[in-house]
Amino acid sequence: MADTLPPIGFGFWKVARQDAANVAYEAIAAGYRHLDCAADYGNEFEVGQGIARAIADGLATREDLWITSKLWNTFHAPEHVEEGCRKSLSDLGLDYLDLYLIHFPIALEYVPIDTRYPPEWVHDPDAQSAMKRAKVPLHATWGAMETLVGKGLTKRIGVCNYNSGLIHDLMSYATVRPHTLQIEAHPYLTQERLIRLAKDYGIEVTAFSPLGALSYVELDMAGQGDSVLTEPAVLAAAQAHGKTPAQVVLRWGVQRGTSIIPKTSKPERMRENLDIMDFALSEEEMNAISALNQNRRFNDPGTFAEAAFNTFHPIYD
Predict the structure, then answer these.
(1) pLDDT at 226
(2) pTM of the model
(3) Which of 100, 176, 251, 260 has CB atoms 3.0–4.6 Å from 154's, for a disulfide?
(4) Is the peptide bond before 118 cis (omega within 30 degrees of 0)?
(5) DSSP-derived 3-state class of residue 189
(6) How far apart are the C-alpha atoms of 266 and 17, rounded to whole Å?
């Protein structure tokens, strides 16, 4: 039973629609029980097909799985939160989510599902317009998220990409406490203070992009030279434990108390990424990898939104 967030999940960001059904099936077959999805990934319908096939083939039951999805920026207004959630449920073929997250602390003007889905970042792509901000406070969005729990549409709610100030603010008004904070975290961006704060509040932390730059090279948001996998501290630990550099970095993420959601389309790599629970890094190895921190953030709206969407919209200082 997936009553607790599995330490290793599978992320569907950047999984192509034509591959997503098979990737979801193969991930479940490999042993993944947490599938991390989002409206903005544009592949939830296909992921749902893969989940349905895996359940039909007896690879897992619905109760074995932990399915996460995320509320997109254009559904922040309270009257649209349930609509966004129900669309994800419909696409995934589910009656409920295990966890529903606010994807970004960014409210954008509503785009009807019939007009464009997923709505993405730009209000009118045909006109090459910019992001269109909406005057929706985060507390209003959270209040609507809480009603989803009461209606049984999701078992838990949480947030992504929040900083410490937003976490403090959220905890001052939340009636339903956030279960999870999902943030970018890897050895180049250790986020130690934010993770400590979340834990102090009893909030679980999930690290996306746990291998760092690998998720961003294909998007021209990082270069090949940005890979943490070639760092001497990582290579030394890999040699000492008979593991790959990627396994060492993923183990570092789990061992520091975060869950992780690596992504790959290759079944053999899926299994490799799961195979990290049979060894432990020493305190010295953990500290050496943590010391690689550069506060290097690859997924930063303050950078990519201006370049891609004509809008300067930082959320991190």
Answers:
(1) 80
(2) 0.97
(3) 100
(4) yes
(5) strand
(6) 15
**What gap in Å lies between CA 6 and CA 34, rounded to an integer?**
6
- The Cα 315–Cα 303 span in angstroms is 10
Cα 48 from Cα 63, distance rounded (Å): 15
Active site members: 41
pLDDT of 127? 81
Indicate the SS3 state at residue 97. strand
Quote the percentage of the chain above a pLDDT of 90: 90
Q: How far apart are CA 316 and CA 213, in angstroms?
A: 19
Start-end of H helices in the chain: 17-30, 44-56, 78-92, 138-150, 164-173, 192-200, 232-241, 245-255, 267-274, 283-290, 301-309
d(C-alpha 59, C-alpha 61), whole Å: 7
In 151-266, where does DSSP find H-type helix? Answer: 164-173, 192-200, 232-241, 245-255
The 10 Å Cβ neighbour count of residue 176 is 15
How many alpha carbons lie under 13 Å from residue 1 in its C-beta half-sphere?
A: 1
pLDDT at 136: 98
Q: Of the candidates 91, 297, 285, 68, which has an alpha carbon nearest to the alpha carbon of residue 188?
A: 297
**Predicted pLDDT of residue 72:** 98
Tokens in use for 76?
């922040």
